[in-house]
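User: Is it possible to get a 3D structure for a protein together with its bound compound? The compound here is adenosine-5'-diphosphate. I've pasted both below.
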Amino acid sequence: MSTPLRSQYLEIKRRHPGLILLFQVGDFYETFDEDARVLARDLGVTLTRKWFGKDDVHPLAGVPVRSLESHLQKLIQMGHRVAVCDQVTLPGKGLVEREVVRIITPGTVMEPGLLRGRESNYLACLLLSGRAIGLSYADVSTGEFRTTELDLSQALAELHRIGPAELLVQKGLDFSRLEPTALSQPRPGAVTEISEAQADLSAARQALLDHFGVLSLQAYGCENLPLSTGAAGALLLYLRDTQPDALLNLTSLSSYQADRFLLLDQQTLGDLEVFGSWQGNAGPERHTSLVAAIDLTATTLGGRLLRRWLRQPLLDLPELRGRHDAIEWLLSREPLRARLRQSLNEVLDVERLLGRIRRRLAVPAEVQGLSQSLRAAAEVRASLVHHAAPAFFLDPLSPCDDLIGLIGQVLDQAAIRAGHSRELDQLRDALTGGRRFLAELEKRERQRTGIRSLKVSFNKVYGYYIEVTKPNLRLVPGDYLRKQSLAHAERFFTLELKEHESFIANARERIAELEASLYQQLCEQIGSHHERLCRLAGGLAYIDLCSALAEGAARFGYVRPELVDCEHDLSGLTITAGRHPIVEQLLPAGRFVPNDTVLCPQAPDGTQIMLLTAPNMAGKSVYLRQVALICLLAQAGCFVPATAARLPLLDRIFTRIGLADHTTRGHSSFMGEMVETAHILHHATPRSLVLLDEIGRGTATADGVSIARAVLEYLHNHPRVRALTLFATHYHELTACADYLPRVHNFHLSVREHDGRVEYLHQVKPGAAERSFGLHVAQLAGMPRPVLRRAQELLLEHQSAAQIPPAAPVSGLKPPWLRALLDLDINELSPVAALTQLYQLQQQARGPAEAAPAEPEHRLLPLQVKEGK
Ligand code: ADP
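Assistant: Yes, that's possible. Here is the predicted structure of the complex:
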């Protein structure tokens, strides 16, 4: 037999499938059954049991009501969807009534405490039909709402670019269909399956038409894109069923085409550490990321815009020139930038404030925050007007004095201002009059009864009363009615007092009502200026971001890149004194060594593929990434870390860097490496930039070299591929490719060796590296001495085995190199000295005819150590 409480719980739970139900029982939110297990696991709270009746026992886990918010935050960040069910009647006889008062899901959060200010928070919806995908996404906290239609093969990259906090999909969607190449990227945040009714294309279309109150979707650019429309409509339907008031903020929809942007998949974003994490929005930004290095914005609006620019670099030359012009204009106006920054520091998150105001979630302090932001916006506008700023800065900043005035008229701090409503003023007067009345009553009653200590007072439980101390009780008049006895006194009331009490209570109630309705009116009035305020927020974001980028350009020495659109042609790339934007900031000022890059595949002897050989730690990966980051920054509309840059508009940047992370993605590292390389070879075009770092490293040397070489040849020879390529390798054999592949050129990172120590100069120079310094790196990495010594022995053996000619001299007459070798005291040698000796011996042994660089097999691959990855 179950209890009524259990039945009530089950009934509410049934109405909210898929949500964790936090069920208020007194001072705790309790969860039961599977929810309790999840809570115990993910919040680390104790799992116990609760008895509902004699033999009905269930798992229980709970959190105190007062710490709800912090627990919600954790649950949402872990991708859970939560319903908060409160007690809505006071405990008395029988069962307390309970209702779900809040539904919070990762993609529909509105609470400032649960959102990251500088990150958009997207709810996305993906519909699949055949090979076509409809993908829509919305940030209900800001009102951004977009939709697109794409091919299966692009879907995953686009999804990862968006990085939704919550993804809606059709029931039973097979994710492996999105990942035909077993390129199993981490899943996006929380995945929610929607019902068939919500995923129905025509119902979805109708929902869109109804929501926007239109007859055609022409204006939104998706009239003839059924999957686009379907995905956007399904997202609306889902919101309508779960959080109808979230729809209020979605006032417009825009369609876009994913192939109009530079494509960056999750792999590339991660390898280049653009946001510094593999999880898109789901994980925190790492300290050392591109965005952390260049984000000098003053507002969360600008911060979010920067992330959007970086996630979606453009292919549109005029648009990019516009961004670059804006930055350039601000770059030459240092004092203006300082003033703008001062004003912008006062601008709060206008987009999200507006969203909360429209949904009636905002408290008066937030409305005041909006007012403060509007005043700051007026200052921004005034400064810009003063400097005769171009129209694209000024136009969105329409003056909002009317709204500032309105808010000032209605609100005084957190309350409705005196003088705003006649009725409210009268009621408030009555209340203060009421207090006066009590003071007078006290005086009057003291006189009438002659009790000097008589008090008229109030408490929450008993209301108003007249208190008389025990010794004075005999003086109490006959019209006093007894209310309560205390140890030292008695409390009374009179009819007059009773009347007054109900008058006060009524006034209070009416005041609260009136204040709420006046406040609501104000919010509605503000909400009706939604469009103007959204434009203003967009304008402020743009100004903030451009002046932050200009500030960064001035501070870090970035320049405006020159962009060239070569459409289908092979396009070149020239970077003069380029730098890595993140590494440069991690090193002491002036320590980063800038390097040039020149790729010009169209010239007769020009470089399409830079083959970069160098010892480990020389700076290969830094150099590769720096080139890609410069291109990405340029196409995001930013200035770049170089003294000059002439860059093509790239369609895509591919990276295959490092061995890290593969094991967490469920591949053997070599398999993962090959899958990714194959992916690149299938998709790269002459307009792509490809970075390959140490491919083939995950397998035996002979295989590795062969694969690396075949990949290199393919990139060079295949007419559809022919991408601009930076190819870093430690396989010296590959340098020979430059002899027969005209557009492959060798480069190396220079190293200086003196006193047995290797010094990295980090300079990129033409020509192949002479040799690798594996043992040196091992030593630097703190390998135990016995291991280093043994490695040296092995190196020696290996080389002797390889080098000693089969017909060794039988006579007692040993060649000089062999004698020298036998004379070596290995125990006394430092590793580097040994390496040097070895090198010389080898040269002698080979004789003058054969002074080729050492074979790669002789290098100790497992000893290679990488830093900072
Ligand atoms: P590799 O890929 O050749 O093993 P990395 O690119 O990882 O080497 O660079 C190793 C370290 O050298 C980096 O962590 C960085 O501190 C330093 N470094 C790399 N390039 C430069 C440079 N251009 N100027 C100064 N220091 C650099």
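The radius of gyration is 36 Å. The chain has a mean pLDDT of 85.
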